[in-house]
Structures are given as C-alpha cells and as structure tokens.
Amino acid sequence: MNFLSKLFGNLNLDVNKIVDNLVTTKEEKQELRNTLQQILSEAESNAQEQVTRRWEADAKAGWLPANIRPLTLAFLTMMFVLISFTDGNLGQFKINPIYIPVYQTLLMVVYSAYFAGRSIEKIKRK
User: Fold this and answer.
1) Cβ distance 49 to 60 under 8 Å?
2) pLDDT in tens, 54-77
C-alpha cells in the first residue's frame, strides 16, 4: 500500500476496502467500476494539477525555465524538418516515405491540440 501511496501522491486510495466490497451481482460490479473510475479520475486530476504547478514554478523562476519547453520543441521540430528534407536529396527533391507518417501524426496532434484546446478554453471562460 505504501508503494501505491507514493505512486498516487496524496490520493485517498483504499484498495483493500474496494476489494472487500466486491461481490458478483451486477449492481455491485457497477459500483466497483464507478469507484475505480472515480479513483482513476482523481489520479488524472492530481497528475494534471502537479504539471500545472511545475509550469507555474517554471514561469516564476526566470526566462530560461519558463521558455525551455517551447525552445526545446522549436529546436527538435527544426532539426526534424531539416533532416527529413535533406535526407537523400542531393539532386531532385523527394521526401523519403519513412518521414510521411511522422508528419501526419505531428500535424494531427498539433492541429487537434490547438483547435480543441482553444475551443475548451473559450468554453471554460464562459
């Protein structure tokens, strides 16, 4: 139990109580599912809260800690684009097909995160 406490932080996690309450009826199974879902939701919320705290601490620490993530992202993106565009392109330009799935995934993630994130921000403000 000590390991689980360390893993989930200050989350009130009582696995023994959940297991003791386990019975085979449909209602009790649904109750157990709901309880486990609540525990997972609390753990996710706690994890997101910790990330937010780290970002806030970074922002207060100075320019470099506040900008290290965006700078790292920009550097890695530029390097990937540079390598993928120059890989085997001494003559006629043709992007190597191995890079196409990576670009597709990156574009999907970036556009989804940006537009979905902006929509959620606007909804939360109202």
Assistant:
1) no
2) 878 877 888 888 788 889 889 998
